[in-house]
């Protein structure tokens, strides 16, 4: 069910942001913004974008409804993207793994909120190359709040992690821009790494940056070789940061300890 709501966030949040930007632009030009019907994460009800068929409760059961409808709208027969049940399944699997990994308690609750936010950010970035402040900034504060009770790391490491996460990619951004005159990443990437640092501590950031950069580079090269992606077409970095954050959440301390032991071995 949470995965179903995440699908709503992925689809609607960028449209909500676009409406807000348009309204602000109109106001800055001294014009009166046109009154639009309410549009948020709850209103209006979900409907087919082609025929307007309102989706009933029986048509909105996660995964099962997609299978029963054979992936088609009941009203017009239009194809429904397979990504909807995929997001629901990923949410289900990750949530179950969190429950098994952390057990019952505050840490499990925090980890669930963390992975749900990363899942929404991943697909929004794939679609729009945006990482909305409406998710990244609350995620930073939630990381600090959960670490008041040392859920994932101590508070000092959490605060330093937020600062280091933001400033690391901010520095890379400006060095790249000064060297090439181009923007290599967006400000949302800074905030996402700051959030990961706030949740997991500064010690885990090298692992997150290394793993996300490695996966991003491999995927980018594969897309270019397969001629499915131009060299000058930007690739969103947020999904790879999110993947690095998930790796660090579940196995970060183990991987870091093994790496340090390897370095200290004679």
Could you explain how this protein is built, in words?
- The chain has 266 residues and is an all-alpha fold.
- It has nine helices and no strands.
- α4 (106-128) packs antiparallel against α5 (133-146).
- The longest helix has 27 residues, at 2-28.
Task: Output the keywords.
266 residues; mainly alpha; 67% helix
How many β strands by DSSP? 0
Mean pLDDT, to the nearest integer, reads 88
Individual helix count: 9
Poorly predicted runs are none
Strand content: under 5%
Classification by helices and strands? mainly alpha
From the N-terminal CA to the C-terminal CA, the straight-line distance is: 52 Å
Q: Tell me about the largest β-sheet.
A: none
| Amount of helix | 55-70%
Shape label? globular
Radius of gyration: 21 Å
State the order of secondary-structure elements, H for helix, E for strand: HHHHHHHHH
